[in-house]
Amino acid sequence: MRTVNRLLLTGLIALTPIVAMAADTAPSGAPEVTIRTEGDRTIQEYRQNGFLYAIKITKKGFPPYFLVRSDGTDGNFVRSDQPDMLIPSWKIFEWK
C-alpha cells in the first residue's frame, strides 16, 4: 500500500508543471484590439491569440465597414457588407 501511495504522489508531482504550462497557454476570451490612425481613417485590428481575424475601417464621412477572413488563411479578406469582393494582398517587394 505504501508503494502505491508513493507512486501516486510521484505521478501528481510530475504532472504539476504540465498543468501549470497548459494554464499559461489557455486561449483568452477577449480579443486584442489594435487601433491606429492613417490620415482621415481609423483602423482597428482584431486578434485572437495573435491571429488577425477582422479589421474595422472607419473613414470620416463614410459608414464603417469590416474586412473579415474569407477562408481562414492568411491574406484573403472580404468586406462583410460585400462578401463577393475579395481584397487581394500581394507581395511586390520584400527585403531580407
Describe this structure in words.
There is one protein chain. The chain has 96 residues and is of the alpha+beta class. The chain has a domain at 32-87: Protein of unknown function DUF2782 (S-adenosyl-L-methionine-dependent methyltransferases, Single Sheet). The protein has one helix spanning 2-24; strands spanning 32-38, 41-48, 51-59, 65-69, 77-79, 82-87. The radius of gyration is 23 Å and the shape is elongated. The model has no long low-confidence stretch (mean pLDDT 75).
Topology:
Blueprint: H1 2-24, E1 32-38, E2 41-48, E3 51-59, E4 65-69, E5 77-79, E6 82-87
Antiparallel strand pairs: 1-2, 2-3, 3-4, 4-5, 5-6
Cα-based radius of gyration, to the nearest Å: 23 Å
Low-pLDDT residue spans? none
Give the amount of beta strand, in percent: 35-45%
Number of strands: 6
Shape: elongated
Estimate the helix proportion, in percent.
Answer: 10-25%
What is the CATH class of one domain? Answer: Mainly Beta
Largest sheet: 6 strands, antiparallel
Task: Specify the CATH homologous superfamily of one domain.
Answer: Protein of unknown function DUF2782
What is the mean pLDDT? 75
Strand order of the biggest β-sheet: 1-2-3-4-5-6
What is the CA–CA distance across the termini? Answer: 63 Å
Count of DSSP helices? 1
